[in-house]
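User: My collaborator sent over this chain with a note saying "see what the structure looks like." That's all I know about it. Can you take a look?
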Amino acid sequence: MSLRVVHLKTEYVVNPLGLDEKKPRLFWRLDSTERGAAQSAYRVLVASSREALDRHEGDQWDSGKVASSSQIQIEYDGKPLVSEGCYYWKVQVWDGADLPSDWSETAFWTMGLLDRGEWKAGWIGRKTEANVQMQPSPYVRKSFAVEGKIQRATAYATALGLYELRVNGEKVGDLFAPGFTDYDKRVQVQTYDVTRLLTEGDNAVGAVLGDGWYCGTVGFLGDKVYGERPFFLLQIHIELADGTKRIVATDSSWRTNRGPLQYSDMIKGEAYDARLELDGWDRPGFDDSGWEQPDVRPGYNGLLTASIEPPVRITETLKPISVRRTESGSYIYDMGQNMVGWTEVKIRGERGRKVTLSHAEMLNPDGSLYLDNLRVAVQQDHYVLKGEGEESYEPRFTFHGFRYVELIGYPGEADLETIVGKVIHSDTPRTGRLQTNDEMVNKLYSNIVWGQRGNFLSVPTDCPQRDERLGWTGDAQIFARTASYNMDVSRFFTKFMWDMIDAQQPSGAFTDVAPDAGWIRHKMWSTRLNWFAPDNAGWGDAGVVIPWTLYLMYGDTRILDTHYEAMVRWVEYLKANTNELVRPDYANYGDWLSIDADTPKEVLATAYFAYSAKLLSRIAGVLGRTEDEAHYDALFRDIAAAFRRAFVDEEGRIHGETQTVYVLALQFELLDGRVRELAIARLVDNIRARGNRLSTGFLGVGYLLPSLTDNGQLDVAYTLLTQEAFPSWMYSIKHGATTIWERWDGWTEHNGFQTPSMNSFNHYSLGSVGEWMFRYMAGLEADPAQPGFRRAIVRPLPGGRLTEAKAEYESLYGVLSTDWKLSPDGRFRLNVRVPAGATAAVFVPGADVRMDGQPVSGAGESSAIEIGSGEYVFESHISSTGV
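Assistant: Without extra context I'll predict from the sequence alone. Here is the result:
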């Protein structure tokens, strides 16, 4: 048997703990050295014990032999799952010759607390200290004894705010738990296996609490958006070998105190006084008799849901590349990379000495930190030494966006070993890689990835340094496809969709940011902003675009079904607020931060209305809702006709005449016939008239190169990609950018820094060109009819100054890759790799196509070569004037 079953996952995760999904989805991959390897059938066994599974007994579910090639999104269909249940599973498959594989290795998942009544714990916190502006972080603890041998111990924890859990002196869990949600609606619960950490006899459990998004500063919306102070909720369920069960839960018997963490704020940094450390506070035997009784909150009305999002973790440690001493005696470090996270410092010095770490993205011309663009954010951490040998400090509950670090008040001579940078983000594993013969294109891709790393932290933030860091929905939807190539964002965006649903308005409107965090109220009450639009085109549409993207990339139909009614409400809301299907011009943002181009907002809004209707029709079709599919397809066609009547003349001229109006009209298929051809020409003329430069903002830029390429203008697309004059992607790279800038003109040779009121140098939106790089340049595309890359469409398009490009994407089936080279004499060589269980339709540019050295009749750019799994070599000849 050539097939081997590997890489088992449940709900996109290897052996997840504490699920609350009643029908979890199962995933596996196939491993085979043979070409065309495919599964013809599978059998899944799920058992309540490892021993039963080892005996091939599926006492919870035995699917039987199912004739299917499906390896992903297999829904559990066994006995009802119970709270705290542990379920073991394995898979056997059959190949095309109906030969069975060996059974896979065993995987498992556990369930969390499925009933609210199972929560016996109380929410505990510490009373506010009087006359203290920024409150110290509460420390809470509990000592307890366990009498008997421990069989299993599981902790269920969450907070209104942030928490760091400690069990018998060891840290448990990851960073910034439980994540950013609308706390009025839901809070996520984390589940930990703490069996190893508990002992028979005396034990201690504790936590440090941070303000986080709950009561700390949220963007520019101020602090205490959801509550006044943090609260902690914990239950540890202990099962003894004799069958006895015990619960240790937060309640009034716990103790609380202040400690060395003087304050922690996501936006305003952290202060830590090591002289106040509480040695041994998280271990048994500590004397907490002088501590206070905690304040117990009466209850919480939101949902307690299992954690969906991937945890925030330190994913890389960077060493600085240079350091210099300033005239004032401080030290300024260059990390060599605009990053998000914090600095760890090692110090020796006298007791009471204060050291400050200040962070910034850029330097002023005089070499000092450029802090003007932070607005009210304070990217500083302060540490007071205890004076006991070498000390090490890094913050707990704050993060910064920076490349440069100023070390102030350091005792002695600092060097390159004194600090390191800790890179943090939601741990969405890398799935995509891309490389070309052009180092600037490679740098662009690196900047795109770093922009994603810096801004995907619980929610897709708009920038990580100033007083904002909000989950802007328009930014997220335009970048979602790029993000999905770069990293596994399946759970990240699944969670973000719940943030959008929680914020959806009674009218059906999706919001500009999610979680809303008071933004709607802020903008509606702010006469300074003068932004009163109840919805924003391209932002609210994220509620349809993101689920569709997850379907394409991961074959996820559940997210479509789960949020279908919400998407319908959005489209019906848009329809209700039109004049003969033309949307109004009240949007606040439009094609945000376009350059020397003002796209009419009614044109943009109507185009996006059409796009949401078209996607909703496709979604209805996927879900088998045939009447809705026809209804929303007809609506799309009616909107397209209304768009043409209102905004397009017979010469293909679209109202506004910006690149974005043409790009959206073409990409969303709002034009046809001669008018479409004329519009293409007008778009190209606009680009040429600007000296082969773009003018698109956030919403137009993601579709700019795809619309050009789809409409026969590949050469123009490549020219824009590699343009080095301002404005362009390469302009920032020429001037040292290591991430994507928020604005094309964030810094220019002629004007220096743009307005500091909005000038981030780490913002992913303009990096949405990464989608084009994967789909068109490298040629890795998903087939909507067989999503999740069950069937890939491989159509690489060489052009411009690129002669080589290789890319890989780790799909749910395994690694799919392309690697092409174009020789000066026109010889084109393409290597393709398709994972077992998947297929691909390969379109080879040029003439005289060969596969593995053998001629392929009729193959070429318009005719697909269907292949199964394995590695293949294609060759062709591309003439200097095309095929």
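A starting point for your reply to your collaborator: The chain has a mean pLDDT of 97.
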